[in-house]
Amino acid sequence: MREAARSGCPINMAVEAFGDRWSLLVLRDVMFGNRRHFRELLAGSEEKIASNILADRLRRLTAAGLLTRDHARPGQRAAYSLTEAAIQLVPVLTELGAWGIRHRATTPRLRVRAELLANGGPEMQAQFMDELREIHLGHPAKPATRPRATERLASAHASLSSD
Fold first, then answer.
1. N or C: lower Cβ tally within 10 Å for the chain?
2. How many CB atoms lie within 10 A of CB 129?
3. In this predicted model, what pLDDT tens digit does every residue of 15-46 receive, in sequence order?
4. At what angle do helices 21-33 and 10-18 cross, to 10 degrees?
């Protein structure tokens, strides 16, 4: 059963949905790392999230309508997908990353995607969001006139991963 909201303030409601640090990091890993299964999220966590915390945050994000979980049969791995509400967080996470770059010590490998999205502006963010809709919601692909945003982000991150 969900707890009552502390208030109807839009900022409070957003914070209650995804405001703790682990929830944002899980959304980041699904969104930018295309990690869709529990084990991928656990193994790929830069911050070394504990399995019980990950399980709790996946439940919370699903209950909040930011992730969906497919119904896997016994022996199959359940996949998590972003919802439209989560995809619409791309500009928010882009700004949060840009703020982190400006005001905190970051490493090149871990900031490269935030830089690309921030420097690409609303056009690249919209392209990335459309590609997330293809991947997570099954929307038809839009014709690509340039390299895909997901490919550019992955390539930039991979190029610095050996550092």
1. N
2. 18
3. 877 778 899 999 999 999 999 999 999 998 88
4. 70
